[in-house]
Amino acid sequence: MQSTAHDFKDNAGAALADRNLQESLATLKVGFSERRRQAAERLPEFEALRDRARDIKNHALANLDFYLEEFERKVTALGGHVHWAPTAGDARRIIGDLCKSVGARTVAKSKSMVAEEIALNEHLEALDIAPIETDLGEYIIQLRREPPSHIIAPAVHLTKDQVADTFLEHHTPLGFTKRLTERNDLVAEARHVLRQKFLDADVGLTGANFLVAETGSSMLVTNEGNADLSNTLPKMHIVLASIEKVIPTLEDAAVLLRVLARSATGQESSAYTTLNTGPRRDGDLDGPSAYHVVLLDNGRSSVLGTQMQDMLRCIRCGACMNHCPVYGAIGGHAYGWVYPGPIGAVLTPQLVGVEEAGDLPNASTFCGRCESVCPVRIPLPGLMRHWREREFERHLTPRAVRQGLALWSWLVRRPKLYRRVTQVANRLLSTFGRAEGRYHALPLASGWTRFRDFPAPPAGGTFHAQWVRHGGARIRP
Amino acid sequence: MSTSDRPSPPRRVALFVTCLVDLFRPAVGFAAVKLLEDAGCTVEVPPLQVCCGQPAYNSGDRESTRAIAAQVIDAFEGFEAVVVPSGSCGGMLAHHYPGLFDDDPAMKARAEDLARRSHELMAFLVSVLGVETVTARYDGTVTYHDSCSGLRELGVKEQPRRLLTSVQGLRLREMATPEVCCGFGGTFCVKYPEISNAMVSEKTADIAATEADTLLAGDLGCLMNMAGKLQREGRQVRVRHVAEVLADMGNLAPIGEPEAKR
């Protein structure tokens, strides 16, 4: 997917003016966080589980080479194949070749953010292979040719009316000519259309929530069951996953699943949890005859051992964006690439470059709500700050900001001069603002006064001036 | 825990005024002094204090931040406790300073020492000094915004509310989402003004829905942001720092309102 993260400010402006988007975000903001809160409250050991989840991922990352090779050994022993893809281009080529090797015309895809990351659909289409998204949200945005706006709810930016219009437009040629208005009817129609596509697919491609080294299994959770059709009906199943998805054992997976669903949707467990362990064996009633796992690095291994490593703990639950007031204001598309919200603000500079995505880690108030709900306790504000430091070191911070900061910090380090300057500023602001008590416009502060008034300080001078004037005595108003 | 189980609480405390209070709302500093003195403390205001360094820290300028932090560490050397009428600046001292000196063990030790001695005002009064009531009167319905750093870094949530219940005439009516950020974020609000505006607009709508006549919080940055938006929207909500009300200084002109002619 082509990044537009460099246009973040324009993207955000457009998002704020989009009435449909704002309507959708209004429901998202309340729903997800409330359900997550209730789910966490119902489980007394939830906070302790978050610690365990963090520790499991930290251990896996500290021994990533070992567990990846162990996973590969297990998959190979089961009759499957593991392919190592250092870059997005490598992953596209490997998957394209696998599809061509079975003469695939259509690929049934279950939701995979990594497939978005490597722009797989565009690549398959160029090879004349039709990718069919089978997750309802992904299917809707595929029809609209839009990227996902959320990592677990890709069409969350759309209203029901927009979905109704999209279905009417795209399903009319298939004989569905009635504009549906009920949610259940829309789901039923999509189910009907998709069922035939599952049956027609030559290859099923899924992502993975976890790769279990101990058993060589890839594990996937969905609420729609579409992954199970994607990986059992076609003759070839390809799992596309990034390297940090590997964990040691099934026991570990059980811990992570318990925090994943609760953090994501407030469910105790997702509706479907599927383990894929190699291709169809003798005596199996169904399953693919060929099983391939494509492991994508795409810059992740370079984060290992750095101060940014914590970002690789992410289990893609979406809680950080569900609780982020910035995401809640502008939605996912404004972030300009695959991963939005706080985790996107940390991952995107790593994966597409900080020159391209420098705005993202800056567009945060550091309110910390993301970190407070992250199931694996990723210090998201701290990681965003690391990016800001790297930008500052590399002179990517805007010149006006750098110069203002330099002047300010020079002054702050001279407390006596600072006192004199602030006393003058205080007196000016207080004198000229006395009549109304505030300013509707102020030079050099238009970013503030465009949207809000600026309070004038009361008469009497700065705190320090008054404190000195009264000899440090308490003042009774 | 009863008061007698505690180690004797610090009595000689330093006030970290914060740069916003110094420049825009000195009354908050005097309110803090009064509350601390009423609780039995001797309050000093070290003269060489300026700013905690957050503008540089949050802009990625680590070197300036270290220099400013070192200056703060010097200024507050030797006090039993350092009290800050702001969760944001308090969090900076109590949580972020030590990490600035990972490559300098001597400074790191001093930063950790300051971190241990640093407290947000409400948390210090209630959780450290064991203050349970104040002597104050405020006739009105107030709503309280939980500023982010105070809430999430320092656990400031119940302490101000507990003290507010002892203010005569005061009724507290909670917002639907008092814990959601107001959109201030320091330089964020001028770097991304449209996004900040969307966030503060949602906050003012939540405030207005309570029908409270007064908004209180523990951080002046957030208060100036919310006051400015409420006033731009023409809403009749008075905005004050919580310390002012607790110190019985609720008769002062609210933030952004003209003072009565003398």
Provide a descriptive summary of the structure in words:
Chain A has 22 helices and 12 strands. With 477 residues, chain A is an alpha/beta fold. In chain A, helix 3 (46-62) crosses helix 12 (250-264) and helix 9 crosses helix 10 (183-200). The relative contact order of chain A is 0.13. Chain B is of the alpha/beta class and 262 residues long. Chain B has 2 domains: 10-127, Rossmann fold, CATH 3.40.50; 132-246, Rossmann fold (3-Layer(aba) Sandwich), CATH 3.40.50. Chain B has a 4-stranded parallel sheet with strand order 2-1-3-4, sandwiched between helices. Chain B has a 4-stranded parallel sheet with strand order 6-5-7-8. The longest helix of chain B has 17 residues, at 193-209. Chain B is globular and about 50 Å long. Chain B starts with 11 loop residues before the first strand and ends in a 16-residue tail after the last helix. At the A-B interface, helix 1, helix 14, helix 17, helix 18 and helix 19 of A face helix 1, helix 2, helix 3, helix 4 and helix 8 of B.
Number of helices of chain B: 13
* Helix-strand makeup class of chain A: alpha/beta
Instruction: Give the end-to-end Cα distance of chain B, rounded to a whole number of Å.
Output: 48 Å
- Oligomeric nature of the chains: heterodimer
CATH class of the domain at 43-302 in chain A: Alpha Beta
Instruction: Let me know the largest β-sheet of chain A.
Output: 6 strands, parallel
What does the secondary structure layout of this molecule look like, with pairings?
The complex is a heterodimer of chains A (477) and B (262).
Chain A: H1 8-16, H2 19-42, H3 46-62, H4 64-77, E1 81-85, H5 88-101, E2 106-109, H6 113-117, H7 120-126, E3 130-133, H8 136-144, H9 160-171, H10 183-200, E4 203-206, E5 210-212, E6 217-222, H11 226-232, E7 236-242, E8 246-247, H12 250-264, E9 272-276, E10 290-296, H13 319-322, H14 325-330, H15 341-352, H16 354-357, H17 369-373, H18 380-393, H19 399-412, H20 415-432, E11 438-439, H21 446-449, E12 454-455, H22 463-469
Parallel strand pairs in A: 1-10, 2-3, 2-4, 4-7, 5-8, 7-10
Antiparallel strand pairs in A: 5-6, 6-9, 11-12
Helix pairs in contact in A: 3-12, 9-10, 15-18
Chain B: E1 12-15, H1 19-24, H2 26-38, E2 42-44, H3 54-57, H4 62-75, E3 81-84, H5 87-100, H6 105-117, E4 118-120, H7 121-128, E5 137-145, H8 148-154, H9 158-164, E6 168-172, H10 188-191, H11 193-209, E7 214-217, H12 220-232, E8 238-241, H13 242-246
Parallel strand pairs in B: 1-2, 1-3, 3-4, 5-6, 5-7, 7-8
Helix pairs in contact in B: 5-6, 5-8, 7-9, 11-12
